[in-house]
Design brief:
Largest sheet: 7 strands, mixed
Number of strands: 14
Distance between the termini: 22 Å
Shape: globular
Structural class: alpha/beta
Strand content: 5-15%
Mean pLDDT: 97
Helix content: 25-40%
Strand order of the largest sheet: 1-9-8-5-4-2-3
Number of helices: 11
Bound molecules: pyridoxal-5'-phosphate
């Protein structure tokens, strides 16, 4: 039996019809940019997160727009983690600010609040807290460091749609939040998409304006902005998926519970841990093993999908060589890169597929 790491094809015939009908309606009207579906999606996703939503072209743009709306640019510094997808750091580079990395906390893989103060300088304007793999960062501990110095907190929630921290959903945990709707994310489209969510209407108005050519009205522009919009057809698909997101996330959690039970007391594989303050949405289910490569070989032999997220920390990437970091600077991130392995995780896994993965994990002897 083959067990794919990720499966994003919608097979539910009813849902397919619902999406096809709405897309046909858009094609019939020729209303491809903006319009009713985008407005409805903004309302629905904003309400889901507990804020106001502006949808944009992708998650990387969402981060760039959030930083721009906070007024961050050349001369400023932004703190984030080296153990994340590169888009988090690219957004800081794109607005012309300087990246300062801080190591992650070893259990949740999120920015370590205990190390944050070391990276703060008088130029620090914001931090980007990544809710990696679907587990929220320790927001209260981060706020305790940031608030007295008026440092803004940006959530990179691209992997954590619907995850909660102390009962509140991602998107409403910091000053401004960024989401991606790349197809493989917990809430994904059939192309690119993203969103910025915030409760501060001033920030939302600024993001809306910057994302739409800095426009005050047609052909009148207050500032030089950019073009970053969600397509109407993506909004249709995302509205349909949003209705099912809670069910999808629940299914992910129930698969995670079965993996965890199979890994209980396993001598060579450690399951992920969820903080008592958080609910995890398992964008990825990443285990740790000092015998990672042997485990990957066994999974491959059994036809079970797996992947390494992420094999090289950002501070060691050629793209960020100029920042002057070296091996050993962020040992927790580096160790994660060397020992982590993602197992199949998506809502469409069958119980039988999950059982195959569990049996294989239990059989692993190194
Ligand atoms: C996917 C992702 C992004 C970027 O999203 P895109 O829509 O691909 O631009 C940013 N941060 C993290 C942590 C991601 O996983």
């Amino acid at each position: 039996m083959n067990v794919p790491l990720i499966d994003i094809v919608i097979r539910d015939a009813g849902q397919r019809r619902e999406i096809d009908d709405a897309i046909r309606h858009i094609l019939d009207k020729g209303a491809y940019i903006g319009g009713e579906e985008v407005a409805k999606f903004n309302d629905e996703f904003g309400a889901y997160c507990g804020g106001t939503c502006v949808s944009v072209a992708n998650g990387t743009d969402a981060l760039i727009l959030a930083l721009k709306a906070l007024g961050i640019g050349p001369g400023d510094e932004v703190v984030t983690v080296p153990f994340t997808f590169i888009a988090t750091a690219e957004a800081i580079t794109a607005v012309g600010a300087k990246i300062r990395f801080v190591d992650i906390e070893p259990v949740t893989y999120a920015l370590d609040p205990a190390r944050l103060a070391d990276a703060i300088t008088p130029k620090t304007k914001a931090i980007i807290a990544v809710h990696l793999f679907g587990h929220p960062a320790d927001m209260d501990a981060l706020k305790k460091v940031c608030a007295p110095q008026s440092i803004k907190i940006v959530e990179d929630a691209a992997q954590a749609h619907g995850a909660t921290y102390k009962g509140k959903r991602t998107g409403s945990l910091g000053d401004i939040a960024c989401f991606s709707f790349y197809p493989t994310k917990n809430l994904g489209g059939f192309g690119d998409g993203g969103a910025v969510v915030a409760t501060d209407q001033r920030l939302i108005d600024l993001v809306t304006k910057i994302a739409n050519h800095g426009r005050s009205s047609q052909y009148f522009h207050d500032i030089a902005g950019l073009n970053s919009r969600l397509d109407a057809v993506q909004a249709v698909y995302l509205r349909s998926q949003l209705k099912r997101l809670e069910d999808f996330n629940r299914r992910r959690v129930s698969i995670a519970k079965r993996y965890e039970a199979a890994l209980k007391n396993h001598p060579l594989i450690k399951p992920p841990v969820t903080s008592p303050d958080a609910s995890h949405v398992f964008h990825l289910y990443c285990v740790r093993s000092s015998k990672r490569d042997a485990l990957a070989a066994l999974l491959k032999e059994k036809g079970i999908g797996h992947g390494v997220y992420y094999p090289l920390s950002l501070h060691l990437q050629p793209a960020y060589k100029h920042l002057g970091y070296k091996k050993g600077d962020f040992p927790v991130s580096e160790q994660a890169s060397e020992t982590i392995l993602a197992l199949p995780m998506h809502p469409h896994l069958t119980d039988q597929q999950v059982q195959t993965v569990c049996d294989t994990l239990i059989s692993f002897k190194g």
